[in-house]
Design a protein that fits this description.
This protein is α/β, with parallel strands linked by helices and 418 residues long. The protein has 2 domains: 30-63 and 312-416, Aspartate Aminotransferase, domain 1; 81-308, Type I PLP-dependent aspartate aminotransferase-like (Major domain) (Aspartate Aminotransferase, domain 2). It has 13 helices and 16 strands. The chain has helices at 23-27, 31-37, 67-79, 92-102, 119-131, 147-154, 174-180, 203-216, 278-287, 296-308, 311-332, 364-375, 399-416; strands at residues 4-7, 10-13, 50-51, 114-118, 137-142, 158-165, 171-172, 185-191, 220-223, 248-253, 265-271, 338-340, 348-353, 377-378, 380-381, 390-394. The strands form 4 sheets. It has an 8-stranded mixed sheet, sandwiched between helices. The protein has a 4-stranded antiparallel sheet with strand order 12-13-16-15. Helix 3 (67-79) packs across helix 10, helix 4 (92-102) packs parallel to helix 10 (296-308) and helix 11 runs parallel beside helix 13 (399-416). The termini are far apart. Bound molecules: pyridoxal-5'-phosphate. Pyridoxal-5'-phosphate binds at residues 55, 119-121, 145, 191, 195, 223, 225, 253, 255, 261, 266. Residues 55, 119-121, 145, 191, 195, 223, 225, 253, 255, 261, 266 line the site of pyridoxal-5'-phosphate (PLP). The modification N6-(pyridoxal phosphate)lysine is found at residue 256.
């Protein structure tokens, strides 16, 4: 609908007010908002509310930012040098520091290969925007982070979901993935380690994915925002280290590893050994003008943050994540009616609901709603991740809260079990 009419080749504004929202805004849906905010139940007033739903490690205050990050920001604030506009692709000092820290023998980086963005969310938006046109399709994981769908559909890009296999630590079903590819497939998006699965791909599996991409000449958007957040025997392999031929846009940032999601710092690394992405590179630089990146203070603090925060800080974070994951798997794995896939990384665990074992719970939405209503515990239903009859649990709450929540989940399941 427009707010004008054309009569005899003359444009006449309408006489009445008519201000519709744009098509793009109407195509933009947030599945989390749709499911959680439209929930028609209220928590049990007699039980303290415990949320295991938000992928924000700072939520309960037990995962603390390192002092070095605070000092780095204070230094910038007091310098009077970090208040102005910055280049659209990000300040050079930060791009130099990132290139130095993340370059490897197999996948070297220069500052020109790096764009700073407003969180990994913005990086994903730019990457999807630069690789896909309206009418094309993008291959997304199922289960997968819902922002991929939101970003793609708002741009008129068709989402095709490839299956992850719970029985194989959430590896990609590569035959299914291949069956989705056609002439209109613009790129493959993979997320490793995964939200919501808490999985971490083996080197061999990553190589198989790359082999397929080489075969179909598919560029990859690789969301590695949880890079290095792995535990147990699991080793994280950056995808770009494993190929000399497949072009990759790697997405990452400070949000999770440095426990500062609110600071909104993300980046794109362009890996392109054979100059396939020359046009895409210029396209990204052009698109960066849409937002003008993360704020200037945090951009200028990046060299200090990534160079001087000690490895022991990351090790401690991973240790706590591992302990919480073990606790979650041990307790939830023994509850009747549930089955778990033990996580290897990130801060999530998918818990399957054997709906046939419950007398009055039909699906994950009902499980979630009744759990809130009766036990005041909030998880996210699998539907949000296109994976019904699972719930996603965020494993970052303090141990006492996790124990309390799991005790209530146990009582709930026993009560509703056949
Ligand atoms: C898989 C994944 N990618 C990207 C993001 C977005 O990160 P940021 O907060 O830096 O925008 C998240 C946030 O939860 C995520 O889980």
């Amino acid at each position: 609908m427009t707010s004008y009419v054309i009569n005899n080749n003359k444009l006449t504004r309408m006489k009445e007010w008519h201000v519709p929202a744009s098509i793009v805004s109407k195509r933009t849906v947030n599945p989390i908002r749709d499911v959680v905010y439209n929930m028609k139940v209220t928590p049990n007033p007699n039980k303290e509310y415990i949320s295991l739903a938000l992928g924000d490690p700072t939520y309960y205050g037990n995962f603390k930012i390192h002092e070095n990050c605070i000092d780095a920001m204070i230094t910038q604030l007091k310098s009077y040098n970090a208040n102005g506009y910055v280049p659209a692709i990000g300040v050079e000092s930060a791009r130099i520091a990132l290139a130095k820290k993340f370059s490897t023998k197999e996948a070297p980086l220069t500052p020109e290969d790096i764009l700073l963005t407003s969180g990994a969310s913005d990086a994903l938006s730019l990457a999807i925007n630069v690789l896909c046109n309206e009418g094309q399709n993008i291959l997304l994981p199922r289960p997968g982070f819902s922002l991929y769908q939101t970003l793609s559909e708002s741009k008129g890009i068709e989402c095709r979901y490839y299956n992850l296999l719970p029985d194989r630590n959430w590896e990609i079903d590569l035959d299914h993935l291949s069956s989705l590819i056609d002439d209109k497939t613009a790129c493959l998006l993979i997320n490793n380690p995964s939200n919501p699965c808490g999985s971490n791909f083996t080197r061999q599996h990553l190589e198989s994915i790359l082999y397929l991409c080489e075969n179909y000449k598919l560029p990859v958007i690789c969301d590695e925002i949880y890079e290095d957040m792995v535990y147990g025997d699991s080793i994280f392999y950056p995808l770009a280290n494993l190929t000399k031929t497949v072009p990759i846009l790697k997405i990452s940032g400070l949000a999770k590893r440095y426990l500062i999601p609110g600071w909104r710092v993300g980046w794109i690394f362009i890996y392109d050994h054979n100059n396939i992405l020359n046009e895409v590179r210029s396209g990204l630089a052009a698109l960066a003008n849409l937002i003008l990146g993360a704020n200037s203070l945090v951009q200028r603090a990046i060299p200090d943050i990534i160079t001087n925060t000690p490895q022991s800080f990351h090790d401690e974070t991973n240790k706590s994540l591992e302990e919480n994951a073990k606790l979650s798997a041990n307790v939830l794995g023994k509850i009747p009616g549930l089955h778990i896939i033990v996580p290897q990384g990130a801060m999530y665990m998918m818990v399957g609901i054997n709906v046939e074992e419950f007398k009055d719970i039909k699906n994950d939405i009902e499980f979630n709603e009744k759990l809130v209503q009766e036990e005041s515990v909030l998880c996210l239903p699998g539907k949000i991740f296109h994976y019904p009859n699972y719930v996603r649990i965020v494993t970052t709450a303090p141990t006492a809260k996790l124990n309390e929540a799991y005790e209530r989940i146990k009582e709930f399941c026993v009560r509703h079990h056949v």
